[in-house]
Amino acid sequence: MKIVCVLINDVDLKKQLNIIKKYEKNIYAVEIRADTFYPETEKISFLLKFINIKFPKLKKILTFRHFSEGGKIKITENQRKNFIISLLSNNFSYIDYVDIEFNSKIKEEIINYIKKYKKAVVLSIHYLNKLISLRNFKQDLKNIAKYIKNKGINKYTIKVVLKIDYLKQYFNFLKETYSFNKTNLTFFTVGKTSLVSRAIGVVLDMPLVYVATKSPVIASQPDISKLLKVLKSIGYNL
Q1: Of 76, 67, 70, 124, nearest to 97 (Cα)?
Q2: 136 Cβ contact list (under 8 Å, min separation 6)
Q3: Are strands 59-63 and 97-101 parallel, antiparallel or unpaired?
Q4: Are 20 and 5 within 8 A, CB to CB?
């Protein structure tokens, strides 16, 4: 079960870690949203090491979203780049994935460092402001696949997130993503279809399906208890 629990800042951090402990058998990875802890590098490093010791079977994902990508802090792209590189360089033993937005200006340099330390890339693309056409969406997927091939990225997951409120629209996009890449692509939504999309993502065994531990990092993101209740209600074997 490829469920990822998202850890955010140090508000109620103990409660978040207790939730991870409670549902540990149902979790595949923990994502640390570094932008919510910025600029506390020592705290992030400690958290990575703590999770590695306390939950050794769980994978660790490092993510730093720019403010324009839904991040929580306004800094320059150069500051963000240096922060991510510093965290990765000093904690590479405790990091399994690094997430970077496909349209990010610092993508090239960050991916070079991810490859240097032989970690997996989560190449994300978010459509949160308006619904893209299926035609443009298919072209974006092709562009990402071409980039991955040309860049020689072997360990990767493509993460696609759309804001969709209607199930018919969701299933149209699901059909495109699922037929495009069943192995390395994960797709879920925010909005009114958010919980349904994540439950379907688990059932279809998508590589990474993100949920909150306690407080959502983005509006409509369900927490792990809600997701597990839905999966249990449809008879999915937990």
Answers
A1: 124
A2: none
A3: parallel
A4: yes
Residue among 162, 208, 219 at smallest CA distance from 5? 208
In contact, 51 and 15? CB cutoff 8 Å: no
pTM, two decimal places: 0.96
- Block means of pLDDT (10 residues each) for the chain, 238 residues, are 88 93 97 94 96 97 89 91 97 98 96 97 93 95 96 96 96 94 94 97 96 90 96 91
CA pair distance 160, 215, nearest whole angstrom? 21
Tens of pLDDT along 9-37? 888 999 999 999 999 999 999 999 999 99
82-87 contact pairs (CB < 8 A, 24+): 83/34, 83/38, 83/39, 83/41, 84/34, 84/110, 84/113, 85/109, 85/110, 85/113, 86/41, 87/34, 87/41, 87/44, 87/45, 87/62
Round to whole Å and give the CA distance between 89 and 70.
Answer: 25
Q: Identity (one letter) of the amino acid at 132?
A: I
What's the angle, vertex CA 216, arms to CA 32 and CA 30, rounded to 5?
30
Distance from C-alpha of 138 to C-alpha of 74, rounded to nearest angstrom: 31
* Spatial contact of 198 and 138, defined as CB atoms under 8 Å apart: no
Reported as type and span, the H/E element at residue 157 is strand 156-163
pLDDT of residue 68: 80
